[in-house]
Design a protein that fits this description.
Layout (H helix, E strand, L loop, with lengths): L3 E3 L8 H17 L2 E5 L5 H16 L2 H4 L13 E3 L22 E2 L2 E6 L19 H26 L17 E7 L2 E2 L6 E2 L1 E4 L5 E6 L5 E4 L7 E3 L8 E5 L1 H7 L6 E3 L3 H9 L5 E2 L2 E8 L15 H5 L5 H9 L4
Parallel strand pairs: 1-2, 4-8
Antiparallel strand pairs: 2-13, 3-5, 5-6, 6-16, 7-15, 9-14, 10-13, 10-16, 11-12, 11-14
The protein binds 2-oxoglutaric acid and fe (ii) ion.
2-oxoglutaric acid binds next to strand 6, strand 10, strand 14 and strand 16.
Length: about 325
């Protein structure tokens, strides 16, 4: 649907090529709220390691996984959430005039924060449960943070802002990494449940890595309630999407998205024998979030109106958006 952009162009020594790439990136984020990126600087072997470790963890017996549980409240967003615990549809209707039905999420997930985050510590599996888990994701987190800063610089350049404008609003690392496993389910379940209900992401940008099962869909046109598949380019491709904070700062589109029955399978109803089971799916999402004290005042058009309004801080906004999901 939209072309894959090669992030290595951001490092081109040819200024026109570099700036042209940044403008193309911003244009995709303005039009769709999404971009597909190759070569964001995370080695494929690290991505393989993260997916393998995630699979191994989710394959453990439930009593082992529950040794590092997510707290019963929405914050801090850390640790393991079993199937059916989190319910994203509770926040699906944020910012829309078209109410969506509440659907149950069919997933289990694990949330990890930065080791540099001064406010919330991590909840790791205790020794003996999966000893490679903590080092694998501590290292993967740092790789994602480096990629995040480079992408924020590219977006700033593409918007015509000084290169460090966005990256310097992310120095505190209140970012989050989320591993998700969507178990195989009978396809009939999709009539009353979903994998993750329609939502927008709360932060600045999200870097998503997914396997090739499919089912990630975005709302197009925005606000229509119609969803189209974002086809999977495999686990080494990064799907980049705009979150609510970047939309408030810059007007780029924070597109509503969900994970549901892939359209190809939905069409089988008309075209041939239906498969009874929809394959399990794994994804890894890294949510870049602004420093908590950062103001969400628009960065591009500091209008007279904006000067009179008091804007929420990113921390207040995150808190408001996440409550209700647990
Ligand atoms: O699993 C996916 O592909 C998307 C997950 C997602 O949108 C989220 O966790 O915010
Ligand atoms: Fe999302």
């Amino acid at each position: 649907m939209f072309e894959r952009l090669d992030f290595s162009n951001f490092y081109s020594t040819n200024t026109a090529e570099r700036e042209g790439f940044c403008r193309q990136l911003v244009s995709s984020l303005k039009q769709f709220g999404f971009a597909r990126l190759a070569n964001i600087g995370i080695p494929p072997s690290d991505i393989d390691g993260a997916f393998e470790t995630s699979r191994e963890f989710f394959q453990l017996p439930l009593d082992q996984k529950l040794k590092s549980p997510h707290p019963p409240t929405a914050t801090p967003h850390r640790g393991y959430s079993a199937f059916g615990i989190e319910n994203v549809s509770a926040v699906s209707n944020h910012g829309t005039s078209v109410p969506r039905p509440l659907l149950k999420d069919m997933k289990e997930s694990y949330d990890i924060g930065s080791p540099q985050d001064a406010l919330y510590g991590n909840i790791w599996p205790p020794p003996g449960v999966h000893d490679a888990f903590q080092p694998t994701f501590t290292s993967f987190f740092s790789s994602c943070y480096r990629a995040e800063l480079a992408i924020l610089e590219a977006i700033s350049v593409g918007l015509g802002l000084p290169r460090q404008t966005l990256s310097q609003l992310h120095s505190e690392q209140s970012n989050e990494l989320r591993l998700t496993h969507y178990p195989a389910v009978p396809r009939g379940e999709f009539s009353h449940s979903t994998r993750i209900a329609a939502h927008t992401d709360f932060g600045t940008i999200t870097l998503l890595f997914q396997d090739d099962v499919g089912g990630l869909q975005m709302e197009l046109p925005s606000g229509s309630g119609e969803f189209v598949d974002i086809e999977s380019g495999g686990r080494y491709e990064c799907i980049l999407n705009v979150g609510d904070c970047l939309q408030m700062w810059t007007g780029l589109c924070s597109a509503r998205h969900r994970v549901h029955l892939p359209s190809l399978l939905a069409q089988e109803d008309q075209t041939g024998p239906m498969q009874d089971t929809v394959a399990e799916r794994f994804s890894i999402a890294y949510f870049a979030k602004p420093n908590r004290a950062a103001s969400l005042r628009p960065l591009l058009h500091d209008t007279a109106k904006a000067k009179d309004v008091s804007f929420m801080t990113a921390g207040e906004f995150q808190h408001m958006r996440i409550s209700g999901t647990y």
